[in-house]
Amino acid sequence: MEDLAPGYRFYPTEEELVSFYLRNKLQGQRLEIHQIIPVVDIYHIQPWHLPKLSGKLCQGDTEQWFFFVPRQEREARGGRPTRTTSSGYWKATGSPGYVYSSDNKVIGMKKTMVFYIGKAPAGRKTKWKMNEYRAIEQVPDQLTGNIPMLRGEFTLCRVYVVSGSLRAFDRRPLEPAPAAVVAENAQKAEPSSEPTEGQGSPPTITGLLQQQQQQQPPWVSDWDWVWDWDWEEMTSHDGSNQLDATTRIDKHKKQQKFCTTN
C-alpha cells in the first residue's frame, strides 16, 4: 500500500473480479495478479488470520480481502470439499446467485458463506463472511442445447467482516436484473382480481415461468435458486461443473403442482 497515494485502495466490482482476475488466473495469464490476489487455501485457516496473508494492495485494508482458492484434491475426485478449521467452519447461507457483466450477461456464479465458531450444527455465528465466485466457461446456446459450465480449478473468494461502516459492494450492472424485469411483467399479466404488489402479494410462480420462457433463456432465473444448490452437487467426476437444467425443470413442475394443490 505504500506505493499508492492516500485515499487509493483496491475495490473491484464483481464483474471485474470474475471477468478479469478470475478468468486470467484460470487461463494462466497475467501472473502479476498474484501480487494483488494470492493463492491461499483459506478454508483451513482461521478467518482472522487471513488479512495478513492477503495481497500487497489489501495488506492495510480493514474491510475486505481477496484470495484465489485452489480446488481441493477430494473435490477433484468427485467428493465434497471441507470448509472446517481448528476452531470452526464455513456454512453456506442463502441461495447461489449470478454475476452479471455491464451488458447484462451472466459471466459467473456466487455463493455466500458465514463463519461459525464451534462444531456443526451448534456453532456460534460470527461477523466473518465470504463470497465465493466461480466463472462460467461456456455460455449456453439455445440452438445446440449446450449447458453452461462452471470452471472449478480455482475460485475467487472475497473475505470480509460485517460492520456498520462497510460500504455496499458494487455488483453491477445497475440496470434491473432479468428476473426483476420478469417479475414486473408477470405482475402486469396477472388478472385484475389478483392482489397487486402494493397489497403485499407477489406474482405467481406459473406466471413467472411463462414470462421467463418468452423473454430469456430458461437457465437464467432467480427461481432456479429457490432450492439451495451446493457447488458439489453440480460437480462431475472429471472436475467440471454443470448446471442440470433437466433437474431444475422437474423441480419447477413439482413446485407448480404444490402451489396448485394448496
TrEMBL record:
It comes from Trapa natans. Gene3D superfamilies: NAC domain (2.170.150.80). PANTHER family: LOW QUALITY PROTEIN: NAC DOMAIN-CONTAINING PROTEIN 90-LIKE, PROTEIN CUP-SHAPED COTYLEDON 2-RELATED. Residues 4-162 form the NAC domain. PROSITE patterns: NAC (PS51005). GO terms for biological process: regulation of DNA-templated transcription. Residues 193-209 have a biased composition (Polar residues). Keywords: DNA-binding, Nucleus, Transcription, Transcription regulation. GO terms for molecular function: DNA binding. Residues 182-213, 236-262 are annotated as: Disordered. This is NAC domain-containing protein. Pfam families: NAM. It comes from the Eukaryota.
